[in-house]
Design goal:
The complex is a heterodimer of chains A (232) and B (316). By secondary structure, chain A is an alpha+beta fold. Chain A has eleven helices and ten strands. In chain A, 37% of the residues lie in helices and 21% in strands. The chains are: A alpha+beta (232), B alpha/beta (316).
């Protein structure tokens, strides 16, 4: 799972001398949020986002109540005036997991991908990563998700896989998650079938607990209940 | 009392599945028994399966798919496209007889010979895509009926209500860009149940945008939630669309005793839904309703559910 396989390779880039209003149009037309800024040799020197541009323009600019003089001032603003110079970037040999952790830590929406000479090779955005994970999890593929509670000990997953395989059912994916109880784990096999009633009974017969779907969590920690209880 | 048709044919049991497959021939005698034991048969017009004109099937399914299905069946394959879709040497013929029976029911209702009707057929259809068998389904019976109504009878507002516990991906996809067919489905939420489609934001495409409506229901919910969602979503949609005829994909698998799902619909809950559909048909569609069996696997509950279903049609 390398960034090289999931990144966007045909990157729309801009020159640092471009006017920001032009860059804004480019973002809107292309339905993207990040524009890497490159020099004449294709080397990454900065990045500008739709948010950078919006922050550079006053609210009344959008209300179209600017005076002519003010307008000219904004028209003269260049990408180089507002871009983030020397932005966080990664190499194509980074893994998807690296990119996810880095994006989570740095709170950016995309990472330019560069080679050793800092030449831009691509860009990987939150959107690209979501697509990769939707694919990995098989979301939208015809199937049924089960949630199974197992003791934290070696060989549990094998028993589950064997039981399901005996039913001639294929796996779309299997997630193993942590559970509240320290000595338990939650296993989520995504089964490529409509026919799960019998396999559920079989797993219960083997001593596994089928978790009530309304109690499924993929997130790891019990949240502080006061902070995110749904308000009804 | 209405003139209600009941399509039932022992040949529909010829499509056999094996092992622990839930979509078994015994489902149909269970349906029949419920209606027979209640003494309702004499009040019904009984229809049998028949060969359909292939041109109607080809309005939904690619010709290459039909050929592939036929060939797989005659060469003795035991599954088709996916292990869910078990088949025997009679599966193709049975699927044809199901389509033909449903089209005959539609014809009789359109001719005015019948007011409405229930088609107890196998195999079911709503998961079948234009070129792919899925989820125990081979020919999309309801989709073919809708195309027949459009092309054979010139209807431009066909309403489909699908309350099988699984989303009818096939029916939705076949009509998603067609504003002359409104597809409404209420089903277990796709993050928890097969087939992984039917989310609230799936509303159709292109010209058909706004003519697909999905009400996903979270696991464990029952009558109240079904009522709330149907009143919120289906009623205003049909009030605007005003279907000229209503086709129903009837699944009894959202019943609390049916282990194919996590839903807790009661027997009375099913009656409530069907009475509402029949009322909508009276309001907009001169009472024209043709319901077609999809899922429903609890043999102990099927007799009563089928009996109630047909009584509601009779007393519409």
């Amino acid at each position: 799972m390398f960034v090289s396989r999931s990144m966007t390779c045909k990157v729309i880039t801009v020159d640092q001398e471009m006017q920001i209003l032009e860059a804004q149009d480019l973002l809107a037309e292309s339905n993207i949020r990040h524009l890497p800024v490159v020099d004449g040799d294709g080397r990454l020197i900065g990045i500008v986002t739709d948010r950078d541009i919006r922050s550079a323009l006053p609210y009344h600019f959008f209300k179209q109540s600017c005076s002519g003089e003010e307008k000219q001032q904004f028209c003269d603003m260049k990408v180089k005036d507002i871009m983030t110079t020397d932005p966080l970037s990664i190499s194509a040999s980074f893994t998807i997991q690296d990119a996810l952790l880095l994006i989570q830590d740095s709170k950016v929406g995309a990472l330019p991908v560069i080679d050793e000479e800092r030449r831009l090779q691509g860009i990987i955005s939150v959107r690209d990563l979501l697509r990769a994970f939707i694919n990995v999890l098989g979301i939208g593929q015809p199937g049924t998700l089960l949630g199974i509670l197992v003791e934290e000990k070696i060989g549990q997953l094998k028993k589950i896989v064997d039981a399901i395989t005996e039913e001639n059912i294929s796996f779309g994916s299997v997630l193993v998650g942590r559970y509240w109880d320290e000595n338990k784990r939650a296993v989520f096999p995504y089964l490529l079938t409509q026919n799960v009633a019998h396999v559920k009974k079989k797993l219960q017969g083997l001593g596994f607990t089928i978790i009530d779907p309304m109690d499924w969590y993929i997130d790891q920690l019990p949240q502080d209940e006061s902070t995110c209880e749904p308000t009804e | 009392m209405k003139k209600t048709g009941f399509l039932y044919d022992e040949r529909y049991q010829s499509h056999k599945t094996s092992g622990f497959h839930p979509e078994i021939p015994d489902r149909l005698p269970a349906v029949y028994r419920g209606i027979e034991d209640a003494g309702l048969l004499p009040k019904l017009t009984l229809l049998k399966g028949r060969q359909p004109e292939m041109k109607y099937i080809e309005m939904v399914h690619d010709r290459s798919y039909i050929e592939r299905f036929k060939a797989a069946c005659s060469s003795g394959e035991s599954v088709f496209d996916d292990p869910d879709n078990q088949m025997c040497s009679d599966t193709y013929e049975t699927a044809l007889l199901a389509v033909g029976g449903v089209l005959e029911m539609v014809t009789r209702v359109m001719d005015g010979e019948l007011d409405n009707g229930f088609c107890a057929i196998r195999p079911p259809g709503h998961h079948a895509e234009a070129n792919k068998a899925m989820g125990f389904c081979y020919f999309n019976n309801v989709a073919i009926a809708a195309r027949y109504l459009q092309n054979g009878w010139g209807f431009h507002r066909v309403g489909i209500v699908d309350f099988d516990v699984h989303h009818g991906n096939g029916t939705q996809h076949i009509f998603e860009d067609d504003p002359s067919v409104f597809y409404y489905s209420i089903h277990e939420h796709p993050s928890f149940a097969y087939p992984g489609t039917g989310r609230e934001f799936e509303k159709g495409k292109d010209f058909g945008y706004g003519y697909t409506k999905n009400s996903p229901v979270l696991p464990g919910q029952g009558d109240e939630e079904y009522k709330r969602l149907i009143e919120r979503d289906l009623l205003p949609a049909f009030a605007e669309f005003k279907p000229q005829v209503i086709l129903v994909s009837v699944g009894f698998d959202a019943h609390r005793d049916d282990d194919m799902s996590d839903m807790k619909l009661s027997t009375e809950g099913f009656s409530w839904i069907m009475r509402l559909i029949v009322e909508l048909a009276a309001r907009y569609a001169q009472g024209r309703v043709v319901s077609v069996l999809e899922g429903g696997y609890c043999l102990a509950r099927l007799p009563e559910l089928a009996k109630n279903h047909i009584e509601i049609l009779l007393n519409a």
